[in-house]
């Protein structure tokens, strides 16, 4: 099958329509649950987000704890201290999952409010940092990188001829 053939274009489009349909159905189910003041309408998305964040945290800790060798160009880090920190990340991730599930089983307001607040405050902190960087500099790139980029862009058309 050629890359530009109609069949190769139909499959991604069908998958795209399926993803859009699922997203729309889930959005409608969520709004319907909110309309009915359903606890689970809020609990399910928060739970998915918490599990995703804690799984990522556990994965990072596990990767650090089980690294076998350091590539030659990588900056070495302290052996035992970093492994202890990595194991602590894994243990903390598992403990937070258990605490969250306990709060969820009790239908605790705080089991949902704390992760949502952490996510919202984290996003707002990132937006603030971006704004602060823009205020402090005219360009978001450091001056040296901005000059190199401008030089490369000026030389680019000449090098393609």
Note down, in words, how this protein is organized:
The protein is mainly α. The protein has a domain at 112-161. The protein is built from 5 helices and no strands. It has helices at 6-35, 39-65, 79-105, 109-136, 143-159. Helix 1 crosses helix 2 (39-65) and helix 3 crosses helix 4 (109-136). The longest helix is centred in the first third of the chain and has 30 residues, at 6-35. It is extended, with a radius of gyration of 24 Å. The two termini are 34 Å apart. 4% of the residues are buried. The mean pLDDT is 79.
List the main descriptive attributes of the protein structure presented here:
single chain, 161 residues, mainly alpha, 5 helices, 80% helix, extended
Layout of secondary structure:
Blueprint: H1 6-35, H2 39-65, H3 79-105, H4 109-136, H5 143-159
Helix pairs in contact: 1-2, 2-3, 3-4
Count of strand segments = 0
Please identify the structural class as seen in this structure.
mainly alpha
Relative strand content: under 5%
In N-to-C order, the SSE pattern is HHHHH
Using the CA coordinates, give the radius of gyration: 24 Å
- What is the overall number of helices? 5
Distance between the termini: 34 Å
Largest sheet, described in full?
Answer: none
Question: What does the average pLDDT come to?
Answer: 79
Task: Write down the overall geometry.
Answer: extended
The stretches of 5 or more residues where confidence is low (pLDDT under 50) are: none
Question: Into which percent range does the helicity of residues fall?
Answer: over 70%
Task: Summarize the structure in short.
By secondary structure, the protein is mainly α. The protein contains 5 helices and no strands.
């Amino acid at each position: 099958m050629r890359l530009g053939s109609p069949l190769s274009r139909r499959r991604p489009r069908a998958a795209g329509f399926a993803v859009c349909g699922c997203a729309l159905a889930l959005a409608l189910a969520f709004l319907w649950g909110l309309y009915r003041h359903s606890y689970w309408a809020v609990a399910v998305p928060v739970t998915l987000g918490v599990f995703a964040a804690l799984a990522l945290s556990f994965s990072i800790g596990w990767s650090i704890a089980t690294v076998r060798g350091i590539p030659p160009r990588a900056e070495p880090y302290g052996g035992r201290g970093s492994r202890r920190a990595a194991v602590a990340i894994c243990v903390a991730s598992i403990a937070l999952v258990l605490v969250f599930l306990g709060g969820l089983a009790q239908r605790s307001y705080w089991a949902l409010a704390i992760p949502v607040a952490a996510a919202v405050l984290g996003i707002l902190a990132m937006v603030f940092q971006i704004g602060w960087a823009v205020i402090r500099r005219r360009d978001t790139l450091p001056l040296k990188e901005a000059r190199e980029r401008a030089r490369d862009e000026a030389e680019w058309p000449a090098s393609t001829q």
